[in-house]
Amino acid sequence: MRDIFEIRRQDAGGRIGELRVPRAGVTVETPTLMPVVNPNLITIEPSTFTEFGAEMLITNSYIIKSDDDLREEALEKGLHEMLGFDGAIMTDSGSFQLAEYGEIDTDTEDIIEFQRDIGSDIGTPVDIPTPPDASRESAEIQLGETEEALALAEGMDVGEMLVNAPVQGSTHVDLREAAAEHAYGTDLDVFPVGAVVPLLNDYRYADMADVVAAAKRGLGSDAPVHLFGAGHPMMFALAAALGCDLFDSAAYAIYARDDRYMTVRGTEHLADIDHFPCSCAVCSEHSPDEVRALADPAREELLAEHNLHVSFAELRRVKHAIKRGRLMELVESRARSHPEMLDGYRAFLDHADQYERSDPASKDTFFYVSGESARRPEVERHHARLPRLDTADEVLLSESGAGSDDFDEIYRVKPPFGPYPTALATTYPVTGEVPDRLDDEAYAAAARGIAALADANPDTDFTLAHYDWPDTALAAVPERVELYDIDADRDDNGGDGDGE
């Protein structure tokens, strides 16, 4: 593998990186969004993409090669001059057409050679995009064909062109992990997680999260990851948190042709909009009635421009969140846009221990905003580190912070983290902001932390002084931990109880 990708900042699985594209002579900051250009149906001139913030685009070399006029123009002028775009250009190989129609008139060696000859900066072999829920036997056979294509591409003279190594395996997560490990072991450069478009089209974000997490387990941390077909801004934050660096959007143009208007919370039909909920150039200068009154292609072009504006604005928001250490708060906010998106976030949290490894040990203030916050990587890390602590003979775990001479040592308790030494009271993440009215999940998480500390110190006598914790949380506290309800004591003493 070439030394082309450098990570600058991380938050959970999200990272700000620099992808060097030697043939284009540019370095692209990731995460980045590549607008898809259909050479036969251009909605917005590629030369204007930089005005939206695009540093890279993607087009289909198979479509170009299959059209006599386009093929000759690309070979004569080169891809950059043909499209009028100075940034990096990635080309697909026709694998999407293979998935749609069952066959294509090219192979890996032929299409890689063509991509090299027309000046592509990142080329793609003909991988086999196995659809979701395919049988294991079918997925294994097609994965073998993809790995043969990677071997052919690896052995070709491509000059400075980078080459994709797609990761397939359908929804069989063990196959995805193995495929990623195999791809990472090649000399290829960029690692697209393929055949996820059907999952995204069906809002199967939980399955998408499991597939990406599996692929990430098989790839090295220095592998730039492309989530093929991830073009809707509502899922950029989640995809970034999962560790994806490159996205591509055909949706900006496809949706515009159907009079659909993108937002970070979903998609609306132009006919249903009374006021544009956006301040981009299109929405600031036109009313919905004015856009509806336009004939095509003017209406389609304006909607496509808006869709690009909202997509790149969300991408900038994701980058800002990663740099601030606030990506998880953004993911939680976007998870509330759709029930299936919430499922996707919960699936991500099922892999919290995996993403804890790349999550910074200290960052901006932890905000507890929902029950899902109790499962974030920061909470998992705190619980995992509790067994490292050696405790005294008698320890008070105090939610109030008050102490007593009856104990050898006092630990503070703060849901969802649970116990921590008082010396760590000003350190991340226990400095986090939590609401006064916590949900049961926060207390249950704190109870898991208490259990971790107690299990690691079997000779210590623990007492938990708490404020009327729910029974479900108290049931998760080890039986040998003595329980003391501060609220009950306060009531018994006419409000004068000191809590201990």
UniProtKB/TrEMBL annotation:
Belongs to the archaeosine tRNA-ribosyltransferase family. It is an enzyme of class 2 (transferase). Binds 1 zinc ion per subunit. Gene3D superfamilies: Queuine tRNA-ribosyltransferase-like. One of its GO terms (cellular component) is cytoplasm. The active site is at D92 (nucleophile). HAMAP family: TgtA_arch. The gene is tgtA. This is tRNA-guanine(15) transglycosylase. It comes from Halocalculus aciditolerans.
